[in-house]
Write a structure and sequence with these properties.
- The complex is a heterodimer of chains A (204) and B (77).
- Chain A is mostly helical and 204 residues long.
- Among the domains of chain A are: 78 residues, Arc Repressor Mutant, subunit A (Orthogonal Bundle), CATH 1.10.10; 55 residues.
- Helix content of chain A is 48%, strand content 9%.
- The N and C termini of chain A lie far apart (88 Å).
- With 77 residues, chain B is of the alpha+beta class.
- Chain B has a single domain, classed as Glutaredoxin, CATH 3.40.30.
- Chain B has three helices and three strands, in the order αβαββα.
- Chain B has a two-stranded antiparallel ribbon with strand order 2-3.
- In chain B, a hairpin with a 5-residue loop joins strand 2 and strand 3.
- The longest helix of chain B is centred in the N-terminal third of the chain and has 11 residues.
- The N and C termini of chain B lie far apart (27 Å).
- The chains are: A mainly alpha (204), B alpha+beta (77).
- The interface between A and B is medium-sized, with 23 and 38 residues.
- Strand 6 of chain A pairs parallel with strand 1 of chain B, so a sheet runs across the interface.
Chain lengths: 204, 77
C-alpha cells in the first residue's frame, strides 16, 4: 500500500505545472483508484493555496472568471483581463514563490515507516523512553509515535502497581531471612542472668 | 587464643559465663553446635547478652584487650 508522501505530492505538482491537468492514471506506480484518492487528498491539502478542482476525476486549475478582480497578497486589487492574466504567474508558481514554511502537508504526517528499534525505548525506559521515541517518530508516523508513548506510560504505571502490590510480600520474605547477629535472641538466654562468652576453637 | 580466653575467664569469670569448645576437631557434638551457630572457621568467639542476643562475633585470633573492652561494654555499670 503506497502512502501519500512528499514525493507524490511533488510529482502531482510537477505534472500540474507541466500540463495543467493530472489524471488519476498518470501517476507512475499507482493504480487509477489510488491515483484518484491521492488527487482528492492533494486537492484537500492545497485548495487553500491554489485554486484547484476535480473535473471528472482529473485535477485541474480552477481558474477564476476573468471579470473577477485578483487580489494580491498585500490586499490591493490588480487589473484583470487577458493581458493581466498572461502576465500573472501560474497558481503553482505563486505557491512556490511563497516563503518556505510549515505547510498543511507537513502538519499531516504521511505515515512513514518507523524503525522497530525505537520500540526498545518505551520497553526499556518506560514513560521516559516512550516520550523520547514519540519525539523521534512523530514526524515520520504520528500514530506509531503515539502508540510508543502510550506503551511507555502503561508499562511505567504497571510497574508501579506491581511494585506496590509486591511490597508487602517482599516485606514478609525479608522478615523470614535470618536476622543479623546483633538483633534477636539467636542464642539461648543465660540461666545466670550474665553475658555469655562462647569460644569455638582448638586448645592452642 | 585459648590461653587468652583462659586469662579472661580468670579475671571476668565472676561476671561473664564462659562456654568453651576448645576441641572442635575431636568433639562431634561441639562441631554440630558450632555449625548450627554459623561457625565456619576456628577460632570463633561470640559474646552473647543475657537474653540470648549475640552482641559481638570475632572470627580468627583476637587480642585480649579487644575482648576485655567488649566485656566491659556489655557488662552492666
Amino acid at each position: 500500500m503506497v502512502e501519500y508522501s512528499h514525493a507524490i505530492d511533488a510529482q502531482i505538482s510537477e505534472e500540474l505545472r507541466r500540463s495543467g491537468r493530472v489524471s488519476p492514471g498518470s501517476i507512475p506506480g499507482l493504480s487509477e483508484e489510488q491515483g484518484a484518492a491521492f488527487l482528492r487528498r492533494y486537492l484537500k491539502i492545497h485548495q487553500a493555496e491554489v485554486p484547484l478542482r476535480l473535473e471528472e476525476g482529473h485535477l485541474t486549475y480552477d481558474t477564476p472568471a476573468p471579470s473577477q478582480p485578483q487580489v494580491t497578497s498585500g490586499g490591493s486589487a490588480v487589473s484583470t483581463g487577458p493581458a493581466a492574466a498572461s502576465q500573472r504567474p501560474s497558481p503553482v508558481d505563486q505557491v512556490l514563490s511563497q516563503p518556505v514554511g510549515r505547510s498543511l502537508l507537513d502538519a499531516a504526517p504521511s505515515g512513514g515507516r518507523v524503525s522497530g528499534a525505537l520500540w526498545l525505548l518505551p520497553f526499556s525506559l518506560g514513560a521516559v523512553g516512550g516520550l523520547i521515541a514519540w519525539a523521534l517518530a512523530r514526524e515520520t508516523n504520528e500514530r506509531v509515535a503515539r502508540q510508543m508513548l502510550i506503551v511507555g506510560v502503561v508499562l511505567t504505571v504497571v510497574g508501579f502497581c506491581l511494585g506496590a502490590a509486591m511490597a508487602p510480600m517482599l516485606g514478609s520474605l525479608s522478615s523470614q531471612l535470618p536476622s543479623p547477629s546483633s538483633t534477636g535472641p539467636a542464642w539461648p538466654a543465660s540461666t545466670t542472668g550474665r553475658p555469655v562468652f562462647y569460644y569455638f576453637g582448638t586448645s592452642t | 587464643m585459648k590461653p587468652v580466653v583462659d586469662g579472661l575467664e580468670r579475671t571476668h569469670g565472676d561476671r561473664v559465663d564462659f562456654v568453651m569448645h576448645a576441641n572442635l576437631d575431636q568433639d562431634g557434638t561441639a562441631s554440630d553446635l558450632a555449625r548450627a551457630r554459623g561457625v565456619t572457621a576456628v577460632p570463633t568467639s561470640m559474646l552473647v547478652a543475657p537474653d540470648g542476643t549475640e552482641l559481638k562475633r570475632w572470627v580468627g585470633v583476637v587480642s585480649e584487650a579487644e575482648l576485655r573492652n567488649a566485656f566491659e561494654e556489655a557488662l552492666p555499670r
